[in-house]
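Our consortium's second objective concerns turning raw sequence data into structural hypotheses that experimental partners can test. To show how far this objective has progressed, the report includes one record in full. It was chosen at random from the queue rather than selected for favorable results. The single chain below, 597 residues long, was entered without modification.
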Amino acid sequence: KKITLQGVVYQLDVALQSTETQKAGLVFIYDMSTSKYSNFDYDLSQKILTLLKGGYPARLKKVLIVTAPLWFKAPFKILRLFVREKLRERVFTVSIPQLSLHVPRESLPVRLGGTLEVDHSSWLLHCYKSMTNREDEIIATTGQQQQPPGQTCSSSSLADPKAAVVVRGTSPVMGSAGITAISSGVSALDAHHSLTAPANASDLAGIDYGHRTQSPSHNGALVDDHHISVAETGDLVATGVNQHQLTGHHQHTTNTSELWTENPPSSASSGFSDDDSLAGAEGDPKTIEQIVQMVRERGKVGLIREYAEIKARAPDGTFTHAKLKNNLAKNRYTDVLCYDHSRVVLSQEDDDPATDYINANFVDGYKQKNAYISTQGPLPKTSYDFWRMVWEQHCLLIVMTTRVMERSRAKCGQYWEPVEGGVAEYGFYHIRTLSIETNEDYTVVELEIRNTKTDEVRCVSHWQFTSWPDYGVPSSAKAMLNFLQRAREKQAEMVRSLGDLWAGHPRGPPIVVHCSAGIGRTGTFITLDICISRLEDVGTADIKGTVEKIRSQRAYSIQMPDQYVFCHLALIEYALSRSLLQSVDLSEFDDREDESD
């Protein structure tokens, strides 16, 4: 245990010499993919968590526990009671597909779903050189005499080359700038360079951490929320080191123009901050009065012209995966494809890369990363993938803004049974319809999902808005606003019902939103939800900026100009209903010619 902890501290100290790492923080990944109860060392896990909390609290950005087994969850639930709230928000339990939501894929090892080829030897050699140079600097500065051979002065030590570490980095990104992986059995450093580090740990087999401040204090405190266990051949991964270090080139990169904002979606605790918001200082936020004035001045023609400018821009990403031969048939429409950079990646089945694709993208919300999954209406052939996505992302709420058939055309597959007690089966997932509530403008169906592989059962609430035509928009936003509010209330209710099982963002896991193509009404619903949330919070909204941001994550969102206009009028209608406005005269809205350039 002592050697393992020494190896961890040794590598973390070197990683934190990087300015980018200090800015971005560390992400510590605890891989439990092959962990078994028989080789789980509770004491080691506790000591590592204590080390992270006591020695690296400020720069510890996240602890990601990957594929935690069932036997791990009970003690973890107890452990979290003793951890401070602040650290608890940094710990997440995730599946391998969800890792890319927290760490760029280019910073993740291949075996964790990334593209990084880890070079342990180069990283260890870099650690050795770095620590040796730092020792020389300290001696030169303080005038101390060099210590005898075999004793390297450092805040931590690596006494055993088996506690090898590999650092992988990505181009500097906000929230993480690289990854350090520790795995047993990799050697590269001379064993005689032993250092003194914190106390104990046994077979470190799968822990990834992040964030840490100054030199470690080795007294401790439990890290939080998700208790960590040791896998058979587990690895420690700490993000925060740049790419050059990982590949053996040790010049530090200083370019921080492109920052990757860390965001968690899914199945665990989350540390969400205002930095994750769509509604930061950027853009052109306006008060509701200013929005009314702008709408009156520009008129319908002006807003349509503004939308045309947005629509004319080239896409903000690539569609490589959507165009792969095996994936083409999974797209409902050939011209509505899925961005690569924000796509929802399903877990691969039988190690087949062709099984990880679904036409769905993560979209950020107001002060919430990955608040939504914007997707197409499932096809009969993709309904299984749809339910896999819902299951893997721990979704509680599905918002459907189309009917299955409209104008005698199929708009969406019937992926649930429309009768109470009915059961639809898609692979390992059995979907039972528990209840149906039919309202004038929408229908609510409570569903039970059973994973027959694990026999786990979850509940999902399905909200279908039925008063929106395929083209055009409602004459009044009242029905949509009521629907949106009720759906939000349901999401909040379901999150509360999870209790301690959910430690993520207060608004819960991603809400799945779809229509037929997943861009028109879907984009309109998300735009309204974001703008209303911001208006309620800070009294301003930025409809144009919100649409631009959504389109950068889900291509072509807000499909028609009248949907863009509807967002403006609906927000004004919402403000009137909440008495944020007294009265509004838009009698000339349809007739006014836009006078702007």
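The partners drew two points from this record. Confidence is low (pLDDT under 50) at residues 141-277. The chain has 15 helices and 19 strands. Both points have been shared with the crystallography group to help prioritize constructs.
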